[in-house]
Amino acid sequence: MIVAISGRSLAAAAKQAGFRPLVADLFNDADTLALADRAVKLSGSLEAGIDEDQIVETLTDLARGYAPTAVVFGSGFERKPEMIDAISKIFPVAGNNAKTIRLVKDPSSLSRLCSDLKIPHPDIRFDVPDNQQEWLTKLAGGAGGSHVKPANGGASGHERYFQRFIPGKNLSALFLADRHQAHIVGFSRQWSSPSRHAPFRYGGAVRLRRYSRTKSVLIGDWLTALTRRTGLAGLCSADFIDDGCGFHLIEINPRPGATLDIFDSKETPLLREHLRAVMGHRISVPAYRGSAASAIAYTARAISAFPHVAWPAMTADHQMPGTALAAGDPVCTAFATADSAIAAMRAVKSRVKELAVHWREEFR
Prior knowledge:
- The chain is an alpha+beta fold.
- It folds into three domains: 2-94, Rossmann fold, CATH 3.40.50; 100-118 and 168-279, D-amino Acid Aminotransferase, Chain A, domain 1; 291-363.
- Helices cover 28% and strands 26% of the residues.
- The protein has ten helices and 18 strands.
- The strands form four sheets. An eight-stranded antiparallel sheet has the order 15-14-11-12-13-16-18-17. A four-stranded parallel sheet has the order 3-2-1-6, with helices on both faces. Strands 7-10-8-9 form a four-stranded antiparallel sheet, with helices on one face.
- The protein is globular.
- The relative contact order is 0.12.
């Protein structure tokens, strides 16, 4: 049973691993409905998150007539990890528990962990800095980049904090944790798709074909140290910035994330390995050839009723015809493969531009 803000990629991974997915998410897009044995729409919104008051009742209804192997959760729980506690009283949960999520998603906790383990990490603070151009403001437990903003408005509060901006190249490590060791699956680079109100909104990611073994070992050692200290389990990811002098750990995502599509493998299905890691069994890491990339297409303007689109191959997360969309809402996800990371990234960005014609033309 899959529960997330968007469950399509996890449902696809579940099918690839030989499972029959039951899905609860905020979208219930056409792809998710086609993949799932049964799917229900969660109460909540992208801004407010998943409605915690109805989550257990919704999942109980979803599971009626089935005996789910486990609940696998995606994004949407970092801000309210108590939902994991509530779900785990009814169903077995295959993922990190609420205590572990709090340890790595609370900004003060992660900062202390990094200090203790000698892992470089940007300074954080909760009071408004004087030199705001050197700082970002973030939502504690936020995901997807839309919550990240320059610290130019003095935004603060019990859910927001300030993190020093580190210029450089981003790097994301996908890893399988077994509570004792972090096994690196691979590395990716991400890019943003800026909008007026969300300059760091997630745009896409490309799986790197190869990466420095020395740097990979260093990052693996850091993530193993964090895993042992926090009890991380299953598929997780870590985001870094390389400023030219070294790496800085920006955040840990304690669940399968946005790069699952470009790392999943027919030969070694990652959801199967996720479950094995959570159960403490021996795991395998996929081997890859070439590169793969994914990118999200957003609508720049509000659409009162989304048109019918004959979706081409290498796309997913399709908006349903007739759906009302606000400016900035996601429309679909595009994919590309190539021999190199640069070629895959160029191809997927080109595909996003080509796809946008389908809904731009409709409203000229």
